[in-house]
Structures are given as C-alpha cells and as structure tokens.
Design a protein that fits this description.
The protein is mainly α and 435 residues long. The protein has one domain: Amino acid/polyamine transporter I (Up-down Bundle), CATH 1.20.1740.10. It has 18 helices and no strands. Helix 6 runs antiparallel to helix 15.
Amino acid sequence: MDQPQLKRDLGPWPAASLVVGIIIGTGVFLKTAVMAREGGSAPWVLAAWVGAGVLSFTGALASAELGGRWPRAGGEYVFLREGYGPGYGFLYAWNRFWIGAPGSIAAYAVGTTTFFGSVIPLEGLTAKLVRVGLIALLTALNCARVVVGGWVQTVLTTLKVVMIVGLALGALVFARGGDFARITTSHGWPGWSAFGAMLIAALWAYDGWNNLPSVAGELRDPERTLPRATVYGTLAVIAIYLLVNVAYFYALPFDAVAASSSVAQATAATFLGGGAQLVLALAMTLSTVSAMNGSILSNARIPFAAARDGVAPRAMARLSRGSNVPVPALLVQAVVASVYAYIGKFDELTDAVIVVSWMFYGANALTVIRLRKRQPPTAYRTPGYPIVPALFVAMSALLIVNTVWAAPRTAVLGLVVTAVGAVVYLVIYRPQHTR
C-alpha cells in the first residue's frame, strides 16, 4: 500500500500569513517596556528595534536562498544536514524539539492568558489550564489537512495586522497629550550590555522569520513562493514594529512606557478611553493565538523530517491517511509545549528560545557561503552576497557572546541541552549511519 505523502496545498497568501503571523506574536506588546528599562531613552529603544530587524532580515535573506535550494519539509534541519552532515542537523532538530518549538508555543500561551487576563482574571490553575487548552485546540485544528491550518492562519493574521496598525495610527492621530519630542529625547548611550539585552528582547519579537521553510514540502511552487513570502513578510513586520513603537513613545511619557505592564493597552487608553482595555485584550489575544497556530503548524515538520532520515523515533515520520499531516509529531510537540506552558514564566521561556535558536541561525547563514562554493543556487540568490550572510554570521556570534556574559544561566541551559543531544546522537544514531 502506498504511504501517504505531504500535499502541496499552501499558496502565496497562507505562506505570507505564516511569516507575518508567526513573527508578530507577544513581543511587540510586551518587550518595549522591558527594553525601555534597559535603554533609558526612546531613541536607543527604537535603535534596538531597528538593529534586531536588520539582523533578522539578513537572516531571512539567507534562509530564503536555502529554502529555494531545498524546498522540502524540515527547513533549517535540512539546510544544516546538507551543509554540515547528519550530526549537526540532528542537534538542530534536538534543540528545536526540546526548547525552540515548545518554548515558543508555551510563551504564546502564557502571553495569551496574560493579555486576556486583564479583562477576565485568569490566575493560578485556571490560567494554566487555559494555556494547555489553547495548545490542545490549535493542535487539533492542525491535525486536519494543512490547507485548514493555512487558511486559519491567513484569517487570523489579516485581522491581527488590521488591529495592530489601527492601534498605531489611532495613537498617532488621536492620542491625548501626544508629543513627538519624546521620540528624539536621549539620555546617552546605555552601554553594550544593556543594548545587547535590548536586542535579545527585540529578537524574540522578530523570531519566526525562519519558520516558513519548515513547511516547504507543502507549498505550491516553493522555489518562488518561499523566498518572496519570507522576504516581503519580514519587511512588512519591520515596518509594523517601527510604526507601533513610534506610536508608543508619541502617546506616552518615557517613564510610563518603562513602568507599564502592557504598553499597548496604556497607549490605546490615550485615545480609546474606557474601551481600550477590552479592545486591546482582544487584539493581543488574537495576535498570540495567530502566532501560536503558525508555530504549531510549522515546527511539527522538523521532527517529522528528522524521523524520515532515521535520527528521531520512526513514529514521528508517520502521516495521517486522512489529512496527510504528521499527526504524531504534532501530538508529541503539544505535550512538551503544554508542560512548559504549565510551569514556565514568559521571559524565561522567550530568553531560552532565543539563545538556543541563534546558536544555529548563524550556522545556517554560513551554509549559504559554504554551498555557493560547491554549487550555485538555481532559484533565489541572497542579495549582497557574501557580505549579507557574513554580517549575519558575525552578528550572531557577537549576540551569543553577549548573552553568555549578560545571562549566563540562560546560555548554560542551551549548552547543556545541546551537549545532551550530542551524546544521544553519538550513542544511538551515529552508529546507524556508519554501518
């Protein structure tokens, strides 16, 4: 009997919606206040948003080339396997499975209860059960045909973008007491350590530019769709983030931004009055649910691809005969994410995700340089090669070094998880490849 295969059911709009929808999640609502406390003035916070955006965009350009070269399920796992061998590909899949994917999904779940909890109090066990329930519901939706998850993503992303841009424009036009002078007032350079911490915070908000290649095996015309959706989607997010953050600092005094637990809600209150809390709670909840849906859909394809290569349990490689999606991988991912959502705190989850992920993002960009020497790409080429991927590699290394210096506990977590993965590969999977 023929084995079920992935279906190429995702067109350009669902692809672009995955990029934008996964990137715009919780960070643009929560991280600006954290960054303001680190940076001390609006210009440096905005500079960190720009810097993180440029860094993410250079990574997206490199990812687009690799995705056009290998439009198969698994994304970065495939790139790293081709560039450095099965061992390095396994380490990426291992880290993504145990920290990157479930940490992201759990952080979105925590963000959702945080946002909606401002309208309907969600605390303690109730909040934890709501988080787990959201993960279960979206996982169940994605166990249907991939086109269902794709169109759910398109609708959620469209609504989210409309509401976020509406918030920014409303504040810039109607905010009571708004002042553009707040955006340009600086209190001096905050220091490299503080600026690095701001970059880490902003990079969480940009994380997700690399997810689309994971579903390349289900894209229509992937050689064209994947690069375009990745590049244009990332550019759109950068523009939206800058617009929103300018609106925050225009509408609110800097100290109010830094002290706010939800700067978006405080900004909306300057022109929406008493209805701001409910409107923003709905907008932010919609944003995080959209990001969670995209993350669930795309990340499950990584253990699926690894299992098909024999470096993960074979059960993870199974596709449902009814929907042609990797249901076992989706279910196991949901279980791990639910555990994190039950026990984790938002900033701890996001910091762990970023540090572990950037250990491999730089290696991906270096893959572009390595593979160009062997075989030029037949589809999309990274603009500014080799400067763009080289810049991304260098900045990734600096970011990791700064994180080790500023947050050694988080960095050690990533290194320990990677070391355990290396032992698992050497003991279990490497002998299978050397027989």
